[in-house]
Design a protein that fits this description.
single chain; alpha/beta; globular; binds pyridoxal-5'-phosphate
């Protein structure tokens, strides 16, 4: 079976973790800060707060910007549910915005039209690894006094995040992994301090001054993260190379690329997507759908057809192909050949 994404763990990674397991620190130790510094250096940001998942990073961001009941937070309709769930955790209301059909990034014009007096923040997603147009987006959020949070779980290493807070995930399918893990990064020390407190029960100097959680990450996970980060440059080059081969070989429609794209995902659009998925699986190729519109999940209010028409239309056609460092050339050729055969039959 060829998966759509998977981790890369080498002997050096294993040794780094084993070393920590034999040390005094199993949970918070010196490597948490070392990992935060390493990610900050890589992304040219001042402060990093390492936490137990990308979802925890998003939750900490919502806490730090002060989301509370009555506040609206604009999020793209096509994203992982966690992007919207983090708003609900704080009692806020996610407001779903349609996406640009060529990239599945938030539609910036539609976003501005959704801003109301209650809009406290906007979360944008660098879908598939393509950074949003932050210059345009920031101009709008600043004009309306809203915070800008970047869900950068797909785009570690793409560029310096231009947002009040950017959130990364280190889940095994992402660019680097710590098993589970995440980090919120910011240039704002006030926001950073709030998130530090939030990850540790709201405690400051032994006194609980706000409500927090246990969102700590462990030292041995951070050892893995530091070791993984050394490969990030090579892995991004490898992902771009694989994407380039798909670009050249495939005749089916695909999302727009770009020079800063770091290709967490490679997404094509096909009619009869479900048939493609099933028949590729029969050939040993596991594809995925990223994502159904969040409000299609039964938990969310059902807004009905036409609420975000581009997101809904894209959802019926999108398919994520295998892409990860370590995907062999003959495996990719098998994906290309199988997909093209299906397209010609269709
Ligand atoms: C992976 C991901 C998350 C959540 O990260 P976890 O580490 O799995 O909690 C959030 N948003 C997006 C867009 C993601 O891809």
């Amino acid at each position: 079976m060829i998966p759509y994404g998977r981790q890369n763990i080498d002997e050096e990674d294993i040794q780094a973790v084993v070393k920590v397991l034999k040390s005094d620190f199993i949970t918070t130790g010196p490597l948490v800060e070392a990992f935060e510094k390493a990610v900050c250096n890589y992304t040219h940001v001042k402060y990093g707060v390492a936490v137990s998942s990308g979802t925890a990073a998003l939750h900490a961001a919502m806490f730090a910007v002060g989301i509370q009941p009555g506040d609206e937070v604009i999020v793209p309709a096509i994203t992982f549910a966690a992007t919207a769930n983090c708003v609900l955790y704080q009692g806020g209301t996610p407001v779903f915005c349609d996406v640009d059909p060529d990239t599945l990034l938030i539609d910036v014009n539609k976003m501005e039209r959704l801003i109301t007096r209650r809009t406290r923040a906007v979360i944008v997603v660098d879908y598939a690894g393509l950074p949003c147009d932050y210059t345009a987006i920031q101009k709008i959020t600043q004009k309306h006094g809203a915070f800008l949070v970047s869900d950068a779980c797909h785009s570690l290493g793409a560029m310096k995040p231009i947002a009040d807070i950017a959130c990364y995930s280190f889940h095994p399918v992402k660019h680097i992994t710590t098993g589970e893990g995440g980090m919120a990064v910011t240039d704002n020390i006030v926001l950073a301090d709030r998130m530090r407190r939030f990850r540790n029960h709201g405690m400051e100097n032994g006194r609980m001054i706000s409500l927090g959680y246990n969102y700590r990450i462990t030292d041995f996970q951070c050892a893995l993260g530091i070791s993984q980060l050394k490969n990030l440059g090579d892995w991004i080059r490898e992902r771009r190379r694989i994407a380039g081969r798909y670009d050249e070989a495939l005749t089916v429609r695909r999302l727009r690329g770009g020079k800063d794209h770091v290709y967490h995902l490679y997404v094509v659009k096909v009619r009869e997507r479900d048939r493609f998925m099933e028949q590729l699986l029969e050939k040993g190729i596991r594809t995925q759908i990223h994502y159904r519109p969040v409000y299609y999940h039964p938990y969310y209010p059902q807004y009905g057809e036409g609420y975000c028409p581009e997101a809904e239309k894209a959802y019926r056609e999108i398919l994520s192909l295998p892409i990860y460092p370590g995907l062999k050339e003959e495996e990719q050729d098998h994906v290309i050949k199988s997909l093209e055969e299906l397209a010609w039959q269709g």
